[in-house]
Design goal:
- By secondary structure, the chain is an alpha/beta fold.
- The chain contains eleven helices and ten strands.
- Strands 2, 3, 4, 7, 8 and 9 form a six-stranded parallel beta sheet that branches. Strands 1-10 form a two-stranded parallel ribbon.
- Helix 8 links the parallel strand 5 (169-170) and strand 6.
- The protein is globular and about 45 Å long.
Amino acid sequence: MDRRRLLTLLAAGTAATLLGSGEANADFPFDNGSSGGLIPPNLIPGVTIPPLAPRAAIGPGTINALPGAGNNMALTIDDGASSETVGAYLEFARRTGVRLTFFVTAYYQSWMDHRDTLRPMVDSGQIQLGNHTWDHPDLTKISAGAISDQLERAKTFLWNNFGTNGTPYYRPPYGHHNATVDQIAADSGYVVPTMWYGTLEDTNKVINEDMLLNAARQWFRAQSIVIGHANRPTVTHIFDQLNDIIRERNLATVTLNDVLVLT
């Protein structure tokens, strides 16, 4: 069913009928965790679905924000050192419909711990995976061969376990890259170094919930790419507050693939 038509029907009060039909189940890959099956993202409380406008065309090169006008926000999560935190992000996405892009450091066991949960969410498009190297070295301080190995090992891991290689997006560890790194990355298909506009500030040695919320209030803005990390569980305690900020600002969380296309 056309999504615009569905939104019109929902506004007319026909949602209950649609949810009871096989057609609704086929259109939307969001599992509500009950025998009721699948629910469309626009019926999950507080969820703003991505816009239906055409994706913005981008060429090779670094990005740190979403181009053009709109009210989208790309929440991108790096690393994965904490299996607990990765799992909590997946549950957050499942119950709210929030769309995420993970930049995977493939060395971490967390991605295998949650492979069976994550794979269907990647297949549905709710979660996107990008390359964040095998074990997170500073790419500007290692040899050309080592740079290639870092990206290719992670690329193989993503493909073998999640059916995607993450191209064309990669995020260099620590945000450190240069022309040499970018050329080697491009040779592996990663032609868009993906930086950020705002941050949850969760790489500090000491973080607390108030610090994270203050960062979210500062950086959750329209057309921003925001970076966070799945390394410590502190952020998992404030997911509802983060979602409140998204709702209050009428932001639509999007993956990079939702809104960008490489030309």
